[in-house]
Amino acid sequence: MSIPDVELLSEMLHFLEDGELPYIGLKIPLIRLNELTDRLGVDRHQFHDHFSPVRVQTPFPVVYGGGEEVRQRMLVEPNMFADPRTSRARSIFEEYSGRVLLPDRIWWDTARALALYSTRPTLSNIFYALRLRTGDDVREYAEKALVLWFNTTWGLLTILVDREETRGRWTGLKMAHWRLLRVLDVTALDSNKLRRLAEIFDRYAEKPLKRIPNQFNPDNPDPIRLGIDRDFVKTFNPTLGDKAIEEKLKKLYGHVKIMLERWIG
Fold first, then answer.
1. Is the torsion defined by CA of 217, 255, 223, 246 positive or negative?
2. By three-state DSSP, how is residue 239 classified?
3. Among the listed residues 129, 113, 134, the one whose alpha carbon sits nearest the alpha carbon of residue 186
4. In this structure, what DSSP letter does residue 210 have?
C-alpha cells in the first residue's frame, strides 16, 4: 500500500485499539486472541509430519487445501481424511482439532471468507484449528461469534494491518501473529449477545461472499458483507435503524475500497 493508504488504515485501526468501530461510534470489548485461546495448531509442517491426506474415510476428518472453493462461505465441511503417519498422530488430533479455522495465508485478490467454522472438529494443512478457553455450555455460541467477528469489516481490517506480505498480495499469518491480534472478547459478552451473534453467523454461514476486492463498492456493496456488518452492529445497539447503519457502513466501505484498489489494482 502507498503511504497515504497506510496512514488512513492506521487511523481507522487507532479507533479499534480502543474498542471503537470506526464510522459507527460503537464500543465493543477487545482482547488479544492469546488470552482467549486454549489450543492453537497445528501448522502445515506438523500436519504433514504426522498425517497423510486420503480420500478413504478415517476417524480424522480434515480440511485440506485453501483454494477459493474452500473459502467462499464462513461454514466449511471437511473435504478429506487424515491417515496417521506417527504414533503421536491420534493424540495430536484429539488435542488440537477444533471447529474455528484461521488461515496461515491469504491471497487477497480471491479471498472471500477469512476465518471459517467447520461442521466437525478438524485439522488442516492450511488453517490453524483453534479451541477457545470457554465453558462447554456457551462454546458453540462463542466460536461462531468469533468467526463472525473475523468476517466483519473491522475484523478484516485488523488482519490487514497486521499482515506479513510473503509474495505481493499474499499475506502470511503465523501462530504468533494470530495470538497477538486484538479480537472481539467473547468471554466478556453475556449469553444473550453470544446467542444473537451465533444466530447472525447461522443466517449468513452458507451464503457465498464475493471476493474481498468486490465486497466494498459503496454504491453496490456485497449484500452478505453489508448484512454481516449491519447485524453485528445491531447486536450491540439494537436501537439503531438499518438505514442509518447502512449509510455509515457505506462511507467506511468507500475508504476500504480505495485502499484495496490502490494496493491490489
1. negative
2. coil
3. 134
4. P
Three cell numbers, residue 44: 502445515
Torsion angle defined by CA atoms of residues 144, 150, 153 and 159, in that order, rounded to the nearest 10 degrees? 180
Are 143 and 117 spatial neighbours (Cβ–Cβ below 8 Å)? yes
Whose grid coordinates read 502507498? 2
- CB-based contacts of 89, cutoff 8 Å, min separation 6: 50, 51, 60, 82
pTM of the predicted model, to two decimals? 0.93
C-alpha to C-alpha distances, 52 to 17, 84, 123, nearest whole angstrom? 41, 6, 12
What is the rounded CA–CA span in Å between residue 167 and residue 228? 30
The gap from C-alpha 115 to its chain's centroid, in whole angstroms, comes to 3
Spatial separation of the C-alpha atoms in residues 214 and 5, rounded to whole Å: 18
Angle between helices 191-204 and 223-236 (to 10 degrees): 170
**Cell numbers 498422530: residue:** 89
| Residue range 178-195, pLDDT digits in tens | 999 999 999 999 999 999
Residue 78 vs residues 120, 124, 206: alpha-carbon distances, Å: 7, 9, 14
Handedness of CA 204, 210, 216, 219 (dihedral sign): negative
By CB atoms closer than 10 A (0-12, 13-18, 19+), residue 147 is: buried
Q: Is pLDDT at 36 greater than 50 in this prediction?
A: yes
Summarised one tens digit per residue, pLDDT across range 42-88 is: 999 999 999 999 999 999 999 999 888 899 999 999 999 999 999 99
